[in-house]
Write a structure and sequence with these properties.
The complex is a heterodimer of chains A (108) and B (200). Chain A has 108 residues and is mainly α. Helix content of chain A is 64%, strand content 7%. Chain B has six helices and no strands. Chain B is elongated and about 55 Å long. Classes of the chains: A mainly alpha (108), B mainly alpha (200).
């Protein structure tokens, strides 16, 4: 069936996908991992897939005009820059800092 | 000489569209959601920096993952019922729209109730906002999200009331669609918060 110029997606199929991905996410979190990066990478990847499913099908971003996609994507890009800068603070070496400890004037 | 034009404006006319062709209400909601993306990205970004830049306890040992997983399931279900409410009004079935709006309201209320129970339990256990960095970050992020859910539940209650008063028709249902966008966004943010705060 079509409404408002686009086909109504199968919402129940999206629901089952979201449920399955949530179970997979919890399973991945509970399983023992050698590296914290592997644990975090898997969970974040699954969470992003779920978020994209919600945005595309429940928020109808897939069927909206391109303007809306550009508007939403632009904030996501800005958000990614913000997070990247934050991660850069962790990863990149900084003068005056060693192992996350500030060598500045002591606080009285 | 300037001529003042009498502009007639019908707030119920869904034909009032922006230059992009998108109705004003919907466009306004999308712009608001864009600002919300920046807000939550700031919180999540800060959390990532704190989480990986300092010693951090295992969240799974402090937080009840299974209770929150069940709560996540409830929020996802409420998102489905919201989109089904929109689908039914588009199909012309107002009775089913009302039913699904009530179910969405119920889902949102259960989510909030479970979060309150979780907070009470954690505070009783000594896990509070001023006790540790993890505690501060946890209560800030989940608290702000909870506030958004609370606002959503209030708006859904209002929208449901309007539905029972017969304010929505298959031709005029922009309120349901716009509120649905907000509610799905709240669900989307929780999907990310659950993964980042509870599981990593």
């Amino acid at each position: 069936m079509t409404t408002d110029g686009h086909t109504i997606p199968n919402y129940m199929a999206i629901f089952w996908w979201l449920l399955g991905l949530t179970i997979a996410e919890i399973g991945w979190a509970v399983l023992p991992h050698h590296s914290e990066l592997v644990l975090a990478g898997g969970i974040v990847a699954l969470a992003i897939v779920k978020a994209v499913l919600v945005a595309m099908y429940f928020m109808h971003l897939k069927f909206e005009r391109r303007t809306m996609g550009i508007l939403f994507a632009s904030t996501l890009i800005l958000g990614m820059i913000l997070v990247s800068v934050g991660i850069g603070e962790l990863v990149l070496p900084r003068p005056g800092y060693a192992h996350g400890v500030v060598h500045g004037p002591s606080v009285q | 000489m300037e001529h003042a034009e009498a502009i007639t404006f019908d707030p119920h006319a869904e034909e009032d569209r922006t230059s992009t062709g998108i109705p004003h209400d919907k466009m306004g909601m999308w712009i608001f959601l864009c600002s919300e993306v920046m807000f939550f990205t700031g919180l999540i970004g800060s959390y990532i920096v704190l989480r990986f830049g300092s010693t951090w306890p295992d969240p799974k040992k402090t937080l009840n993952i299974w209770l929150t997983a069940a709560n996540t399931f409830i929020l996802i279900c409420s998102s489905v019922t919201m989109v089904k409410a929109l689908e039914w009004i588009q199909r012309g079935d107002t009775r089913k729209m009302k039913l699904f709006l009530c179910l969405t309201l119920l889902g949102g209320s259960i989510f909030l109730s479970v979060q309150i129970v979780e907070y009470r339990h954690l505070l009783h256990e000594g896990f509070n906002p001023h006790g540790s960095l993890f505690g501060s970050a946890f209560y800030t992020m989940t608290g702000f999200h909870g506030f958004h859910v609370f606002c959503g539940v209030v708006c859904i209650a209002f929208c449901t009331g309007k539905a029972f008063l017969g304010k929505y028709t298959p031709q005029h249902h922009l309120g349901v669609e716009t509120l649905g966008l907000y509610w799905h966004f709240v669900d989307l943010v929780w999907i990310l918060l659950f993964a980042i705060v509870y599981l990593i």
